[in-house]
Prior knowledge:
- By secondary structure, chain A is mainly α.
- Chain A is built from eight helices and no strands.
- In chain A, about 70% of the residues lie in helices and about 0% in strands.
- In chain A, helix 3 (about 40-60) crosses helix 4 (about 70-90), helix 6 (about 130-140) crosses helix 8 and helix 7 packs across helix 8 (about 155-185).
- Chain B is built from 13 helices and 19 strands.
- In chain B, a hairpin with a 4-residue loop joins strand 6 and strand 7.
- At the A-B interface, helix 2, helix 3, helix 5, helix 6 and helix 8 of A face helix 1, helix 2 and helix 3 of B.
Amino acid sequence: MExxxxxxxxxxxxxxxxxxxxxxDVYSEKIYRFIYYKTHHKPTAEDLTxxxxxxxxxxxxxxxxxxxxxxxxxxRIARNNVIDYYRxxxxxxxxxxxxxxxxxxxxxxxxxxxxxxxxxMKYLENxxxxxxxxxxxxxxxxxxxxxxxxxxxxxxxxxxxxxCRSIGKLRKEVVLSLLIIxxxxx
Amino acid sequence: MNQDREKQVKVILADLYxxxxxxxxxxHELRETILKLLSAKPDVRFDEEFKxxxxxxxxxxxxxxxxxxxxxxxxxxxxxxxxxxxxxxxxFSGVMICLLVLVPVLYFANKAGYFLGxxxxxxxxxxxxxxxxDNAFGPLSSQESLALEGxxxxxxxxxxxxxxxxxxxxxxxxxxxxxxxxxxxxxxxDEAKVEVWRRQKGxxxxxGITNLLSSMDFGIFDLSTFKDIQVQRxxxxxxxxxxxxxxxxFYEGTVSVNRNYRKWLxxxxxxxxxxxxxxxxxxxxxxxxxxxxxxxxxxxxxxxQPVVNRYWESQSQTGGVFEETIYIHEEVSITYPLVINGIxxxxxxxxxxxxxxxxxxxxxxxxxxxxxxxxNYETSMYEAETDTAKILEIAEQGGIQGGWYFYGDGETVEAxxxxxERIYMRFMTYDNFxxxxxxxxxxxxxxxxxxxxxxxxxxxxxxxxxxxxxxxxNDIPVPRPLPAPPVSSEPISMPEPAPVLTPAETQTEE
Lengths: 186, 510
């Protein structure tokens, strides 16, 4: 598949842009999910997904396989679009995605997933936002450490260690919360 | 806990233990933590409509980039954000009120026939798919489905002489046995299942035209008295010089264009004798086809670069005398190959399948357009063949149907096969008078080295990857032509035709 993907990209860069559709077919749903996990809002996720693919199409000539893989490239575009979106919305505070905002903040969210996210928010908001991003990419997006490293611009080993420590920290939070529940029941 | 989730938990735990083995002491808690994270993963459904709409926008942008012209694409605005912006609220409310009043008025007026708008009847032009259960299309192999398209093997057919020659000269065909030898890279087949596509039909939006026609009273009968009718096919004709006849089959989801024979010059109808030198170069032929497509706004988004079918090249042999006797039809076809998910589609015989435009050489005009089809598909997974030795065996025998095979003194020649490419093989099955058009993942082995001095019609060998097709079809006997006499390249003179007797001459004396 990787060789085929490189061939497709080369074709696009030679002017046969119709081949871009193949890349769209492979990555459209993955990118949408990636963005959704950062925005929790369907219309916003759709808008940002459109922006991502348009940017990728407009800039396909600038992609260089020597500098990294295509998936990492397009995920980075998606990630940057999300950051830009939130910084435009809330220019007075440093936020990268919806996780940086409290649940009662005035920002669009899908109510269907709100309850699920409330539960996990209380654990994830206590870890560093970069670490949180790595945890979500690994557990929800199912990305490899190699891909994650290219997206967040850290070494693969560093990403593994960050993930390990974050899960370790979350484990303690979970245990603590269970303990609190137990104590309250007694 | 379902198997997928359990698998995910195991993978993540393995990650953690690889970094810090002391985590094993907390396996239960870690498992709980990971499960909490997985359970909290939002339910996300990727909207198919949005996916298709974005695809259309991207294709429009591609056209724009290629032509440096702005493309106009309508995209439904997100009204929720408009509501949220106060400064647009008043203007938007006004528009909504107008629409709420006007739309019902327009709808009922149209229905009552006060005026005819443009009926909304669209054939799906961009590829859309619906996944179904495994093996949903039934058995792929059946006697009926073996009808080969474009079968060709080795040897040249008899070439008819150019009309007008006083003495008929027929070139005797050459008969060869072909042996294919694979010389490509090592094959690796690691898919347990392959995705077979079936083109959907019968689902076209015919309601627009049906509504239009069903209320019509034709004078000699009233169509509105027939309840629940559907329009399946329409034919439209251009009543002008070099006009066309356009057929739209809503049920099959196809459009074809032919000459309106009444309006093309009478002399054109007779078959003309053309020479190879009369055929323009590919660029000229493709330009004629491209102009036609552009003029009539034919959507070729799912079709690749056009290829001229130069069938006469495989018929011609070395030595100029044979070229002059090759029959060249007055129409030359150009195929815009169908491309699905970036993969080319071929028929079983090895020709690229796609939109075909035929150009009438004497008039240098498009004479017809075929295989413009709707692109609505269902997909289903079928068991794949993973035994590479079996695949190569079938390729080396000429594919699942084999090739022409001559016994006796026929010479055996060898052709080499190169590394295959992945394609879709178009394949028809039949069930209760209904045809099913399937696209089956397959491997196309190109013929990289043909025997010297021998003509070959085939350019490639196709082997499907669906296991079912390889297991059953190989046992079906291939029709074998009768043993042929040895090769003779001398022209054979045909006898003079018997004189036609007059009625008086045929009367016998009683």
